[in-house]
Specification:
alpha+beta, 15 strands, globular
Length: 297
């Protein structure tokens, strides 16, 4: 950061000498505040994540004012890692009663046909109707595919909590790994026992900024009869502050190797990029474009 100060000074000097003087005067104060923050004890991780969940619930209504585009690129790979097939999909993402809903708008770079648009809209209408009747803390589909963060902490061993500056903001970071002896119920909990990774939490806003995870052992779906996710499969996802009021996904990436129905081997690499954040006005008409605050990578 110090290396950028000469450029900052030069630009400010051209336009606002008074602002430059104020910035220079405030630098020691900012440095002192940063040191004070570093001196604060790291919060208890369980309490921290409870605050993350509470804050997320408080922002659910705000999030329903936003929509954005998700571009998904999925590559199928052979045993040597060579790409054999690529599929691209672009979705419009919005939220209803805290549930994330996707409307497909493009496939492999081309808009949907009129027939496919009609089918997609019918599908989305059903999802919206179901979302309005489904409590926010319950999944739209399935009964054992999700689990609460707090229960996740019962399954995971947390280690190495630390405070670092991440993308210009104070962040609490900790590592996690599934406990093999933890009692679990359902597929999501069973899979969590075989995950390890790192979680970044924005300290000021109590929001998950980034998560990286990988399978440390093979994970058998239905005892391996349906699928067997291979050790080493990994993924990450990012979020960023949008319009200074809401945290939304900015991207995700993953590599999955699995065997389906004991026969077919699958190797896939997927990349999702989120953009074109839009805020809606009260009358449900599109409002001005929303911007991501800070670097998102």
């Amino acid at each position: 950061m110090l290396k950028t100060f000469p450029i900052l000074r030069a630009r400010l000097a051209q336009f606002a000498p008074g602002v430059l003087a104020a910035v220079i005067l405030l630098l020691p104060v900012a440095a002192t505040a940063q040191k004070a923050a570093q001196a604060q004890p790291i919060p208890d991780i369980r309490q921290l994540m409870a605050e993350v969940m509470d804050h997320q619930k408080q922002l659910e209504k705000v999030r329903e004012n936003y929509t954005y585009r998700a571009s998904l690129n999925t590559q199928e790979l052979d045993s040597s890692g060579k790409v054999t097939k690529t599929e691209m999909e672009e979705d419009e993402v919005f939220f209803v009663n805290a549930h994330r809903i996707l409307r497909k708008v493009r496939k492999d770079g081309k808009p949907l046909s009129d027939h496919d648009q009609q089918k997609e809209q019918e599908h989305v209408n059903k999802l919206v109707e179901k979302a309005m009747k489904t409590p926010p803390d319950e999944p739209l589909e399935g009964s054992n595919t999700t689990l609460s963060v707090m229960h996740l902490l019962d399954i995971m061993q947390v280690s190495n909590p630390r405070r670092e500056e991440f993308r210009g903001r104070p962040t609490i970071i900790f590592d996690f790994a599934g406990r093999r002896d933890a009692k679990t119920h359902g597929m999501a909990e069973d899979a969590s026992k075989k995950l390890a990774g790192t979680l970044w939490v924005d300290e000021r806003d109590r929001q998950v900024v980034r998560m990286e995870a990988r399978f440390t052992d093979n994970f058998h779906v239905a005892g391996g009869l349906l699928a067997n996710v291979q050790k080493g499969s990994s993924f990450y996802f990012d979020q960023a502050l949008v319009n200074g009021e809401i945290w939304l996904p900015t991207g995700a990436e993953g590599h999955v190797e699995a065997r389906v129905l004991l026969l077919k081997g699958i190797r896939q690499h997927f990349t999702e990029r989120n953009s074109d954040y839009q805020r809606f006005s009260v009358d449900a008409q599109p409002g001005k474009s929303a911007t991501v605050v800070g670097k998102t990578n």
